Amino acid sequence: MAKLALVLSGGGSRGSYEIGVWQALRELQIEPDIVTGTSVGALNGAMVVQGDFDVALAMWQQLETQMVFDVDSPEEGSSQEKTAAVLESFAREFFRQGGAGTSALEGILREYISEQRVRASDKQFGIVTVELPALKEKQMMLQDIPEGELHDYLLASAACFPAVQPHTIGETKYIDGGFADNLPAKLAQSCGADSYIVVDLEAVGKVDREFLGTLSNLRVIRSHWGLGNFLLFDTSVAAQNIRQGYLDTMRSFERYDGFAYTFEKESLSAVAEERLRHAFRLTDRLGVTGAERNSANRLLLVRLLRTLRRYAGERHLTPTAFLTSAAEIAARTLKVSPLTVYSDDAFHDAVFAAAENTPILLLAKQMVLAYEEGRAFPLIELLPLPAESLLASLYLAAVLSRRADHIEGK
Questions:
Q1: Which residues does residue 342 pair with via DSSP β-bridges, in sequence order?
Q2: Fewer CB under 10 Å: which end of the chain, C or N?
Q3: Chain-wide mean pLDDT for the chain?
């Protein structure tokens, strides 16, 4: 019988993203047969095996740094200020006692994770930790963990030394499993997995990406956006990460369109070819494309196409991928929120609202004016601009000129 593995990486506070992935998998009615995890992935994995999503969500919606580690954490201030203060507190605890204590985290695990319910599950469950002083990797399946010691081994897997003290079980000290395997797909394979959903938090830790490349039926889910400092637990950041994990997973399973932004299904592809034809009319008249290009303009075109292809991760862009890449680059440049499912019109409204009173929109309007008057545009002056900013201006210009053409019946 085929077995699906859910592999959860370590990453501290970034683990909130994995809860969003789980939310999407539940909605898609996808149930893993095997769950393996390292560090926070082990903690989340235990809750997946336990099967109580609402409990896991409630936990992550209230976690703050001082609730997880025995350190001081400011309640007020910007994210940067909080991060600086937390790192200072961890450094102080390291020099004072070899790392922060985890008694607070132990209390949370015992409150939210039921060893009895985890053991009663029909899912296979495995974690990774590392023994000291030999730095020996220790892969443990649930049946290998003595009764009554699940919470201890979860704490051992998540003992992120040197920020956190090693966790002692009996006579043995353990540190974070990320020192050996932060993305335990090998452990899942040893359990008989033949397909994999891997959640990569891209945190500090050892990952055998060459091995991952050998796996068939592999789906890797990772964020296109920053997930925050892994030591700073913040409820507002967690809410964003959960939403991002959900949207990234739904796009991965093609319930929505987009690369880093999320679009209603077919909302861009339905208009891609018509809009591209219009965009090329605009760029031909401006001199970016077309027979009248000079060497500087050809250089500019190469830069723009290379940026679009790199963003999409595709060498040959389809009309939809071309349009989506340009639209998303404009949105990222203008800091449009990625946490919404956009219709075509709603996306354009959000981009133009973000562009208001910016040099990017001013440049776009200058391009449109040159287009409407049928005159050359001094593209040579734009070569020093970042390709992303220029693409954003061209995208806005294409939308503006298309709207004007439709209004005037051109």
A1: 263
A2: N
A3: 87
User: E strands, 200-325, where?
Assistant: 218-221, 262-263
Helix (H, G, I), strand (E, B) or coil at 10: coil
Tell how strand 172-176 and strand 167-169 pair up.
antiparallel
Q: Which two tokens stand for residue 405?
A: 């053409």
Nearest to 135 by CA among 204, 181, 69: 181
Note the pLDDT tens digit of each residue in 155-197. 999 987 777 788 999 999 999 999 999 999 999 999 999 999 9
Give pLDDT, residue 266: 87
Structure tokens at 19: 């809860």
Give 49-66 as a 3 state SS string: HHCCHHHHHHHHCCCCHH
- What pLDDT digit, counting tens, does each position of 101-111 carry? 677 788 999 99
Residues 6+ apart with CB under 8 A from 277: none
pLDDT at 410: 42
- Residue 199's SS3 state is strand
Say if residues 62 and 235 touch (Cβ distance below 8 Å).
Answer: yes
Q: Are 120 and 54 in contact (CB under 8 A)?
A: no
- In Å, how far are 9, 56, 191, 192, 367 from 50, measured between CA atoms? 18, 10, 19, 21, 58
How many angstroms separate the CA atoms of 332 and 309, rounded? Answer: 16
Task: Profile the chain (410 residues) by mean pLDDT over runs of 10 residues.
Answer: 94 96 98 97 97 94 78 61 63 56 83 96 97 94 96 93 84 94 96 97 93 94 92 89 98 96 88 78 72 65 88 83 92 96 92 94 90 77 84 89 52
Beta bridge partners of 7: 36, 198
The token pair at 219 is 């789906």
Q: Break the chain down into helix, strand, coil percent, rounded to 5.
A: 55, 10, 35
- Amino acid sitting at position 330: A
Q: Is 371 left (phi over 0), alpha (psi -120 to 50) or beta?
A: alpha
DSSP track, 138-195: EEEEGGGSPTT-HHHHHHHHT--TTTBPPEEETTEEEEEGGGT-SS-HHHHHHTT--E
Q: What are 195's strand-pairing partners?
A: 4
Query: Which H helix or E strand runs over 23?
Result: helix 16-27
CA distances from 204 to 14, 16, 182, 183, 346 (A): 11, 16, 8, 11, 37
